[in-house]
Amino acid sequence: MDHDFKTKLAAERERVEDLFEYEGCKVGRGTYGHVYKAKRKDGKDEKEYALKQIEGTGISMSACREIAFVQYIDVYVGN
């Protein structure tokens, strides 16, 4: 991948830390990392979110499947 493209993409990408405020409450531990309770910093809603901090380097195929499943649930089951 082109270095300039990666640099530009990194600068434009929103970071989770910029969007959410961790409430310091660790909800649990999953196979791929820890799960924390958080709320949006911008106050667009008062929902509580569960954010998973993935450990290690790279993402395994199992982790990719988990991410896809959570996205599916959000689209078809969530609000």
TrEMBL record:
Query: Which residues of the sequence carry a binding annotation for ATP?
Result: 52
Annotated InterPro entries: Kinase-like_dom_sf, Protein_kinase_ATP_BS
One MF annotation (Gene Ontology) recorded for this entry: ATP binding
Origin, by domain of life? Answer: Eukaryota
Keywords carried by this UniProt record: ATP-binding, Nucleotide-binding
**Tagged with keyword Ribonucleoprotein:** no
- Name the Gene3D superfamilies for this protein: Phosphorylase Kinase, domain 1
- Please report the name of this protein according to its UniProt entry: Protein kinase domain-containing protein
* Native organism: Sinocyclocheilus rhinocerous
Quick one: which gene encodes this?
cdk19
